[in-house]
Design a protein that fits this description.
By secondary structure, the chain is of the alpha+beta class. Helices cover 49% and strands 19% of the residues. The protein is built from 26 helices and 26 strands. The two termini are 47 Å apart.
Length: 739
């Protein structure tokens, strides 16, 4: 009998996502690319119009990808397209469940800048500066050269803002394009032509630069998927190899990967050994050794050896694809700060517009003041009313944090969990498969009589005939320590349930089983029970090998700690987070593992409902609580916790669906890293909101005192937008939250 290590994979059925009754009544869905949906104000216009359409069940917006998911019960998507076209939003259908074969289109998101755009801005800027220069030199703001150059600047550089402003006016939406258009038209109406030209030019340039910043946030997500090569070297039916589009390669196909190449699809190695850089999936800093039977993942890098693997998932269903999908879906869930900002902006704009109207009409009507100066102040207030910096700062920051976490192997389901992770005060951790490896292994081989190698060989040969986990661990230890040596032949083999196994090896009778059984057989030596008791106190299971002459060998088996568990638990405690271990194993074993982790609260003999009750108690004691488990049998406790963390998520849809945060390489150290990233994200959000509101307040006071000009207000507002976007994007390259 030879040593072997057979590995098999079994797929898990994904759990059904939770939907509302209204969504359950919507059998169809469609995804639209909305070319002109650039900010939350345009999202609001679309939401207000589509929500009133009969047959629409739900709308899910992805601002950064400019996508809209519509769940509906309509006979076709034509009414939705008609409304979006009426809003001048430039819609394209990306996916439609009503289309033949559910066909999927791949329209690309248009970038916010091109060489032609910059040429247009150059013409507009030259005309605006020319109008300002002639006005300053001549002292006449309304001469025909000034008006001509100002009109050129407005029509060339301000065409898009003016079009969007008209659309907003038609639908009674006070967005920034409407306010800016009104300010430009008002400035021209009171004879401030150079001012109107400069304002529209600055606004258009700022919009362009801000768009480029948002492109970067969008591309940060797209870069994850871009790591997958488009071509896979696939073995054909005749045995030859050919490069095929990765999207066309089916499950079961065999693909070859050479050193230095990226792996195109998920699979299991058939031939060859190598080291693979799995950082894109798991965030691991060092390459991982791989051999036949080990899984590989799309987007990871083959470091040195050539190998062949069998494809286990189509490109659209790869682990990397599912990560990208979860990150994109997470963007649609508003974080607490983002919900606050959206509500604030909804009331803030009408209040400032009302104030601007009062400023324009009250002094001239009641105090006899000149009309033009007060109308000008009102126009400045309208520009200040644009909440762009405030509104755009939160989604940019949140998506940057989500993407930064995904790059580190931390998959967060929504901005609400990213922002609230800093509030964790206690964490409950499952034992098996969470703080431990989840597979029993031999920790001690204690020789009592005879040659150690000979006794271990006999024990492994008997254990190989049993499927008990402890027996399998004994055999695995022998096979790993002496992989070239064959196991011995066993005759007259017999298994006694609950006791052990016995058989003839080289003509002699041997017994392998529990200490109690060996004692019942009268083969226990003096002191055996004390040794077994000491091992049991350490949370270890034991088997004893004995012959007719007495006990020969003790093999102790335990589920060993993950390499980084102690460090992770220590980090959490140093952050002021209490850690409790919950286990279904016996209390003695749980407490033994707890001692290794320096934990004072380790509970055993817990059923799933007991774990749920324990988490509920922790919530009462500490307030905000997390739960770490495998995402399946710990589901009740994961659902009760404020944040559920799933271990072992690679290759399992169930964990992705169950948990709020998934740790892609089973490394508990990513939990304190997640908490640090959450705190950093919250700090950036507060910085952005404080800065955006501070700028508004300063210019509001300046406007009322007559010290602010239109172009200053535009410059400050758009400058603030660019600064908060840049500040939010810092999370993509921030290293302070890494361990």
């Amino acid at each position: 009998m030879s040593c072997c290590n057979d590995k098999s994979c079994a797929g898990e059925k994904p759990s059904a996502p939770t939907t509302s009754p209204r969504e359950n009544a919507a059998p169809h869905q469609a995804v639209f690319l909305i070319e002109n949906m650039c900010c939350p104000t345009e999202e609001r216009i679309i939401r207000d119009r589509l929500s009133g359409l009969r047959g629409i069940a739900s709308l899910q917006f992805n601002l950064f990808q400019r996508e809209l998911l519509v769940r509906h019960s309509l006979p076709s998507v034509a009414p939705v397209l008609a409304l979006l076209n009426d809003l001048k939003m430039g819609p394209q259908v990306k996916a439609d469940s009503l289309a033949p074969n559910h066909e999927i289109n791949k329209p690309e998101v248009k970038r916010n800048s091109s060489p032609g755009t910059w040429v247009t801005m150059a013409i507009s800027g030259t005309a605006a500066v020319g109008a300002e220069a002639i006005s300053w030199y001549s002292g006449d703001d309304s001469s025909w050269p000034v008006i001509t150059l100002a009109l050129l600047a407005i029509l060339v550089g301000g065409r898009e803002p003016l079009k969007k402003g008209w659309t907003a006016l038609r639908h009674f939406s006070l967005n920034m394009n409407f306010l800016m258009s009104l300010a430009v038209i008002g400035a021209a109406a009171i004879g401030q032509w150079p001012e109107a030209a400069v304002v529209i030019f600055l606004f258009a340039v700022a919009e362009l630069v801000e768009g480029k910043s948002l492109d970067r946030a969008r591309e940060a997500i797209g870069s994850l998927m871009a790591m997958t090569p488009e071509i896979a070297t696939t073995r054909l039916g005749n045995g030859s190899w050919k490069g095929l589009p990765a999207a066309d390669v089916k499950v079961g196909a065999v693909v070859r990967v050479r050193p230095g190449e990226r792996i195109p699809l998920d699979g299991v190695i058939l031939v060859g050994e190598t080291n693979i850089d799995q950082a894109p999936i798991t965030g691991e800093s060092l390459p991982v050794a791989k051999q036949p039977g080990d899984p590989v993942y799309a987007g990871t890098v083959n470091a040195n050896g050539e190998f062949e693997f069998e494809v286990t998932a189509r490109q659209a269903n790869s682990t990397l694809s599912r990560i990208v999908q979860r990150v994109q879906q997470a963007q649609s869930e508003r974080a607490p700060t983002q919900r606050f900002v959206d509500q604030f902006a909804r009331y803030y704009i009408p209040v400032v517009v009302a104030l601007a109207i009062l400023v324009a009409i009250v002094p001239p009507l009641l105090l006899g003041a000149e009309v033009a100066p007060w109308v000008y102040k009102a126009l400045v207030l309208l520009v200040i009313a644009c909440p762009c910096a405030l509104v755009i700062s939160t989604p940019v920051t949140v998506v940057s944090g989500l993407t930064a976490a995904a790059r580190r192997g931390i998959l967060i389901k929504g901005g609400v969990y990213l922002e609230n992770g800093r509030n964790l005060r206690a964490i409950a951790v499952d034992k098996t498969g969470t703080v431990t490896v989840g597979e029993p292994s031999v920790t001690d081989l204690i020789t009592l009589d005879g040659d150690a190698n000979s006794a271990a060989s006999i024990a492994a040969s008997l254990a190989a005939r049993s499927d008990h986990p402890v027996s399998m661990a004994v055999t695995d230890r022998w096979c790993s320590q002496w992989p070239t040596q064959s196991l011995l032949e066993v005759e007259a083999f017999k298994a006694t349930p609950g006791r052990g196994v016995q058989g003839m090896v080289n003509g002699m009778q041997f017994y392998l089983g529990s200490g109690r059984w060996i004692a019942e057989l009268g083969l226990a030596d003096s002191g055996l029970s004390d040794t077994l008791a000491n091992l049991a106190n350490d949370g270890k299971s034991t088997v004893v090998l004995a012959s007719a002459q007495g006990s020969m060998l003790i093999a102790s088996v335990a589920d060993t700690l993950r390499p980084n568990s102690v460090e992770a638990i220590d980090q959490l405690r140093s952050m002021g987070i209490s850690v409790t271990m919950l286990s279904g194993d016996n209390t003695q074993t749980a407490q033994a593992i707890g001692r290794q982790l320096h934990m004072t609260d380790a509970r055993g003999d817990l059923l799933p409902e007991d774990k749920l009750a324990a988490v509920s108690d922790l919530v009462k004691q500490h307030g905000y609580v997390g739960m770490v488990g495998d995402g399946v049998n710990d589901a009740p406790a994961l659902a009760r916790a404020d944040i559920g963390f799933a271990m072992g998520v690679i290759g399992t849809d169930t964990a992705l669906e169950t948990a709020d945060v998934a740790l892609m390489d089973d490394d508990l150290r990513k939990i304190p890293e997640f908490v640090r990233l959450s705190a950093r994200t919250r700090a950036v959000l507060i910085q952005n909101i404080t800065f955006a509101l501070g700028i508004k307040l300063v210019f509001l006071i300046m406007a009322l005192r007559g010290e602010a000009t239109l172009w200053m207000a535009v410059f400050a507002d758009m400058g603030a937008s660019l600064l908060v976007v840049a500040n939010g994007l810092r999370l993509l390259r921030d290293r302070t939250s890494r361990r």
